[in-house]
Amino acid sequence: MSGSEAALTPWAGASEIATAVAGGQVAATAVTAAALARIAHANPRLNAFTDVVAARAMARAAAIDAALAAGRPVGPLAGVPFAVKNLIDVAGLPTRAGSRINRDHPPAARDGTLVARLEAAGAVLVGALNMGEYAYDFTGENVHDGASRNPHDTTRMTGGSSGGSGAAVAGGLVPIALGSDTNGSIRVPASFCGVFGLKPTYGRLSRAGSFPFVASLDHLGPFARNTGDLAAAYDAMVGPDPADPVCTDRPAEPVGAALDAGIAGLRIGLAGGYFRAGASAEALAALETVAAALGPVQAVELPEAARARASAYVITTTEGAALHLQRLRERPEDFDPDVRDRLIAGAMVPAAFVAQAQKFRRWYRDAVLRVFATVDVILAPATPCVAPAIGQKTFVLDGREHPLRPNIGIYTQPISFIGLPVVAVPVPLPGGLPIGVQVIAAPWREDLALRVARALERQGIVRAPVPPAAP
Question: Is 85 a catalytic residue?
Fold first, then answer.
């Protein structure tokens, strides 16, 4: 291995890798082989990957090297390894969606849209990642494949349902991973694992070629260790897709070019009320640190946020139950019992409750958009606490003991309920585990959330900390 190859550490970012590959300082095959070696070494400890596609990855990397040798373009993510939550189609693999039932399905015939777009930009898919069953999970604990483990403390949860995605990026196995977010499944693992996560506006990134959970709430998005990589992944994937009926043809300017435009003149809101009640000392400290770094902030209230969360639950459980009703009838014993019981409960929710939740959803969206007439972004906690222990069932919330699993997403659900774009930024805490803060923008303004995240990163306020055990 040359000195240049050795200089690409497990913490090298996507832009650093792509620059080195495109410039001939390192071969894409060498980068890919190193990523596969890291996965082989660290995955038994982290349980982030459920599938590794080594032969495909090495063939793809060899094609990139051949293209470079022939003087052909290779794309802005040339040679960058990435992995995807196992609910996104990968040609040749059954799309598990974290379940036992789905692995009996035939392998996917083609890649999902976002996989294809990242590879068209030069990235190299190396595998599929562990997740909570059918994405109905906030913990990262899968009863079929085992819990994904937090690289900062392997006795702790990654969060879910994109737990393998958070662990793979936080642990230095890949610089970019894809996850999904229905009620918080990108933002929760980003918070617990100490990485950046982007949940785009609903309809911004195609979901074609992914197994659904709640079609009216589902988003796909990237994880990364820095804002530049997050923006580069987003720019490679954004664009209309007729295969996803909600993926809009609304024009999207590349965000990477404007990432360093600064935040002068932006109005920063700080969510209060519901978004502070129940938060741990760590969550509040992280929020206050971020707010202080951004200068003057304006206190704002998102009206009826608690009712928004309740309505999100009604829609989630009823839409999810409708999707899985046949599986629940035919193979109930093959479900995670916690997931099965919540889906069965959802099947019994009266239709009038669902209609009321949808009516409220429209009212709430209009009310929140009025708040965005006064501010450009809003800061809120991503999770109420740092990563709990794997297997932990309860935690203290607002001075009382509560079930853990359904309450980790108390601050994320009122946001995804109306499809707002969010960047979850990691705040390292002195002597402890990281925790995330949500930077929330109005619909279609991913650029503003990313610019704020970038400004915080440049100040050193937010960053993805290196875990104690190297991959």
Answer: yes
